[in-house]
Specification:
The protein is mostly beta strands and 95 residues long. Strands 3-9-8-5-6 form a five-stranded mixed β-sheet, with no helix packed on it. 0% of the residues lie in helices and 48% in strands. It has strands spanning 8-16, 19-22, 26-27, 32-39, 48-49, 52-53, 62-68, 72-77, 89-94. The protein is globular.
């Protein structure tokens, strides 16, 4: 059992062609956010935020990404070529 600094929050991310739907758009600054990314699309996607990213997630699979966010706005994106341009991107805030 590991102690994390600050609160921890699990946030669900649904990936499809070509968008992400996040269960929440903001968290308190200093929170460790565990992004649980589920690919409900038909092709592989990944999820990148604050310099960290999931492995490529096959259709029907999930991956988690734990990121501690200081105050600010953080862009998230799918790094598969062309996917962000098609709409798989957004901004997440820690306030």
């Amino acid at each position: 059992w590991m102690r994390t600094f600050g609160p921890s929050f699990t946030l669900n991310v649904t990936a499809t062609e070509f968008k992400f739907v996040l269960s929440k758009k903001t968290v308190r600054a200093g929170t460790t956010v565990v992004f649980t990314v589920t690919n409900k699309g038909k092709i592989a996607h990944d999820f990148k935020i604050n310099g960290k990213k999931t492995p490529l997630i096959s259709p029907g699979k999930s991956a988690t990404l734990s990121v501690t966010l200081k105050k600010g706005s953080f862009k998230y994106t799918c790094t598969v070529p062309g996917h962000a341009a098609a709409g798989m991107k957004g901004t997440f805030k820690a306030t």
